[in-house]
Design a protein that fits this description.
five-stranded antiparallel beta sheet, mainly beta
């Protein structure tokens, strides 16, 4: 009996020693939790010039926190909690930008987001002395009239600097302008001409009122009435293509003058004169013809024949013609997801409108409507299908994409669409847990199912388990390594030696990260 008591005591002491060793070895000292906060920073630039925009207001969405850019266009938001943010940029004289791009702040990282804002265009209007819009300043044929005036009205939202530009020997002077014209200000301008330098007949020239953000034109005319200029007829305009037109004219009557030149003048926006687009063919006494080159496609032109003599310049009746459209037509784009970093895109050039397509393909961007200056995938030339791999891409990111086609004149685009790349983090569920005997030992049988591999290979899957909730692959928990690839799988957990609630989660790992399933529990008695 004494020996039996000693044996029982020995067993009890051994169990206490093992229990002490188990808990002593596995217990870890908790490190203090350091709260991480992230940041967002970037540079705001002018859309047209690319120069930094200082003193611009940048606000954060959500939250409404605001800051101003420095002289170098830099802004920064500090101490941000993890989350998704966007920015809004505004400044006087610029169009407010509500940036749609989502900035993901996670694990205290600094995230950069640059943006461009577009300056509002300056607008000037040429008006007469009563404020009515005018396009022509006509001195007429009165020899005593050598001075006339007009006004420049700034109807924009910012001050502008204006210059009056002209090339004409019979305009003797134009009054000077102030250094800037403020918004809403009207400035008078006086024009003086020298009638002794006028050619016989009607004379015409253009004043160009130019600003840094646009310009306006004013036609100046004056007539020297000494004899009649030649009478001219525009016989026909034919064989019109996208860039050319053949014209024929005829001098009907020289009216006693000596013809020194004839030809054709044309314009896209007003009655043409020899100050516009012009073809000089030299002296002629009858018919003349010419093929005008380098016209803009898909454009309506006004055209007149002219003849110049010592008695002035005569013009024919105005006619119009339209060049052919040369813009290729691109179809919509479809996307097939392949991988978190690559997709296949498909589209089509449905019509080249008679002009050869020298390049076609797909272009894409994250932050704005894409052009061929962004990322692109070429797909040959000519009409027909477009296909290309969009690569490299970022996982779980929204992109904008559209097709394009380029001919010798310009590039046109198809309809813009968006797509989001796959995250690369697989979706997995956890099977329920039960006690089983496996190879004559007690185990807990569970497992999981990789229901979506997100377009990439699952190289490891199994279950994580432990006596604390939400087990993962960290060193604080144990795990099985059961298989690879998608689909269901079974896991066997060796029976733990201690009791309590065992927490279990399935996992699946790709090169982009690890996805975890739902948590199941089983009580170990």
């Amino acid at each position: 009996m004494k020996k039996k008591f000693v044996g029982i005591a020995f067993i009890i002491i051994a169990m206490i020693f093992v229990s002490f060793t188990w808990y002593g070895c596995t217990e870890k000292t908790e490190e203090p939790i350091v709260e991480k906060t992230g940041a967002i920073y970037g540079v705001i630039t002018d859309y047209a010039t690319g120069e930094p925009v200082g003193n611009a207001n940048v606000s954060l969405r959500p939250g409404g926190e605001t800051t101003l850019t420095g002289f170098d266009g830099m802004y920064e938001f500090l101490d941000l909690e993890d989350g998704d943010y966007s920015i809004t940029v505004s400044k006087a004289e610029y169009t407010t930008l509500k940036d749609p791009y989502v900035i993901h702040v996670k694990n205290g990282k600094r995230m950069r987001r640059d943006a461009q804002i577009e300056r509002m265009p300056a607008t000037i209007r040429i008006v007469d002395m009563n404020g009515a819009v005018m396009t022509t300043l006509d001195f007429g044929s009165d020899v005593s009239l050598v001075t006339k005036s007009f006004k420049i009205f700034n109807e924009g939202t910012e001050s502008v600097h204006c210059d009056v530009i002209y090339e004409c020997n019979w305009i003797s002077s134009v009054s000077s302008l102030p250094n800037v014209i403020t918004p809403g200000q009207t400035v008078p301008v006086t024009v003086n001409i020298n009638r002794t330098l006028l050619a016989i007949g009607q004379n015409s020239t253009i004043l160009n009122i130019s600003t840094g953000h646009g310009s306006a034109e004013l036609r100046v005319t004056a007539t020297s009435a000494s004899g009649n200029p030649p009478e001219v007829q525009l016989s026909q305009v034919n064989n019109v293509t996208s860039t050319t037109a053949h014209c024929e004219g005829r001098i009907v009557n020289a009216n006693g003058g000596s013809i020194t030149d004839c030809g054709f003048c044309y314009s896209a926006n007003h009655t043409p004169s020899i100050s516009d687009g012009v073809v000089h063919l030299g002296p002629s006494s009858g018919t003349f013809n010419h093929t005008i080159l380098n016209l803009e496609h898909n454009t309506t032109y006004r055209i007149r024949a002219f003849a110049i003599s010592n008695l002035g310049t005569g013009y024919s009746t105005e006619r119009t013609f339209s060049t052919m459209s040369c813009l290729p037509i691109c179809g919509a784009t479809t996307i097939e997801n392949m991988d978190p970093t690559a997709v296949m895109g498909y589209s089509e050039v449905t019509n080249d409108n008679g002009c050869d397509i020298i390049e076609k393909g797909l272009c894409w961007s994250i932050s704005h409507t894409p052009t061929i200056n962004d990322s692109k995938a070429t797909s040959g030339f000519g009409e027909g299908p477009i296909s290309g791999m969009l690569y490299p891409l970022q996982p779980n990111t929204t992109y904008r994409v559209r097709s394009y086609a380029t001919n010798e004149f310009e590039t046109t685009y198809g309809q813009e669409r968006t797509f989001t790349t796959m995250s690369g983090i697989p979706t997995v569920t956890t099977a329920s847990a039960s006690f089983v005997e496996y190879y004559y030992d007690d185990y807990i049988m569970t497992g999981g199912d990789v229901t979506d591999d997100q377009g990439t290979f699952v190289y490891s899957k199994g279950v994580c388990y432990g006596f604390s909730p939400n087990p993962d692959l960290s060193s604080s928990f144990q795990h099985t390594d059961d298989d690879s690839g998608s689909g269901p799988y079974t896991s066997y957990i060796p029976m733990p030696s201690n009791s309590g609630t065992l927490y279990i989660r399935a996992y699946a790992t790709t090169r982009y990260g690890t996805g975890y399933g739902n948590q199941v529990t089983i009580y170990i008695p």
